[in-house]
Amino acid sequence: MKYHTSPSTSQTNLYSDSSIYRSTSPLPPPATTYCLSATTKSYKYLRKIVKFDQMDFEFAMWQMIYLFISPQKLYRNFSYRKQTKSQFARDDPAFLVLLILCLFVTSIGFTWTLNLTFGQTLYCIAYIVFVDFILVGVIVTTLTWLFANRYLRQNANEADVEWGYSFDVHMNAFFPPLVLLHFVQLIFFNSVINSEYLFSRFFGNTIWLIAIIYYVYITFLGYNCIPFLKNTRIILAPIPIVILFFVITLVIGWNITITFVNFYHYRVL
User: Fold this and answer.
1) Which residues does 86 contact at the CB level (< 8 Å), separation at least 6?
2) Residues 149-193: pLDDT tens digits?
3) Per-residue pLDDT tens over the stretch 204-241
4) In Å, how far from its chain's centre is CA 141?
5) Integer Cα distance of 235 and 256 in angstroms
6) CA distance linking residue 166 with residue 27, whole number of Å
7) SS (H, E, C) the chain
8) Beta bridge partners of 229
9) Helix 198-224 × helix 256-267 angle, to 10°
10) In the chain, where are the structural domains located?
C-alpha cells in the first residue's frame, strides 16, 4: 500500500510564491527573490566605504577609463547589474572612493597653481570636496532624479529611477570634466591660458566647452539606457546653448579659466 503525504504548509506557500513570481516577473529568479528598500541599499553601500578589502578598485578603474574611450560600454554594465542584482545603482563604493581620491590629488595641484599657503590649501581642498563635489552633486542629482521620474517615464505606474543611480550618473559625468579642468587645464594655465591673447582665451574656453559637453553627453547616456524612460534626448538640449555661450565668451573677451582661478583664489583669502 502506498501512502501519499501532503506537503507542509511552508512548502505549499513556497511553491505558490514561486509560481506567482514566474508569472509576473520578467527577471531571472536569483535577482528578484527579494528586493531591498532604498534605505537598506544606501546603508549597505555606505557601510562598505570603510571596508577597502571588499571593494573592487580594479573594476572601478576600468570604469573610469571607459568613461573616456567608450562610455556606452560602461552603461551596458549597469544594465547587467539590473538583471543580476535587481538595481541599476552601484553596490560597490570603490568608484566613489577613487573619484574623491582623484579630486583630492588634483585639488592639491590646483592650490599649488594658486600659490596658496598650507592653511589656505586645506580650506580650498575641503571646499572643493564638500561643496563643489558633494553638496552640488547632491543638488544636481536630486534635480535630475526628479526630472527623470516626473517627465521621462513612459507610464506613471512604471518603476521609478533610483536616486542612487542618478548619483552614479552624476559621478560618471563628473569624472571627465574633473580630469580636463583640474588636471589638463592646469598644465597649460601659466604657459598658455593665463594671458589676454585671443588664442589663450580660445584654448582655455575650449577645454571648458569640451568638459561641459562631456558631462551632458554622459548624463544622457545614463538615462537613455533605462528602458522605461522616453524622450531622453531632451537631456542633450543644453549643448547648443553651451556652444552659443562659448562663442559669446570669445567675442566679449572673457577668459573663463582666469575667472575660475580668481574665484577660488579670493574664496580662500
Assistant:
1) 27, 31, 32, 35
2) 999 988 767 778 989 899 999 999 999 999 999 999 989 999 999
3) 999 999 999 999 999 999 999 898 899 999 999 999 99
4) 8
5) 24
6) 22
7) CCCCCCCCHHHHHHHHHHHHHHHHCCCCHHHHCCCCCHHHHHHHHHHHHHCHHHCCHHHHHHHHHHHHHCHHHHHHHHHHHHHHHCCCCCCCCHHHHHHHHHHHHHHHHHHHHCCCCHHHHHHHHHHHHHHHHHHHHHHHHHHHHHHHHHHHECCCCCCCCCHHHHHHHHHHHHHHHHHHHHHHHHHCHHHHHCCCCHHHHHHHHHHHHHHHHHHHHHHHHHHHCCCCECCHHHHHCHHHHHHHHHHHHHHHCCCHHHHHHHHHHHHCC
8) 153
9) 80
10) 52-267
Q: Which residue matches cell numbers 594655465?
A: 189
Nearest to 133 by CA among 93, 89, 167, 94: 167
- CA 37 – CA 34 distance, rounded (Å): 10
Amino acid making up residue 90: R
In angstroms, the CA 145 to CA 133 distance is 17
- In angstroms, the CA 160 to CA 111 distance is 41
Give the integer Cα–Cα distance in Å for 67 and 24. Answer: 36
CA pair distance 245, 100, nearest whole angstrom: 30
| C-alpha cell, 234 | 531632451
User: b or e along 39-74 (b: 16 or more beta carbons within 10 Å of the residue's beta carbon)?
Assistant: eebeeebeebeeeeeebeeeebeebbebbeeebeeb
pTM of the model: 0.81
Contact status, residue 174 vs residue 133, Cβ threshold 8 Å: yes
Residue type, 243: I
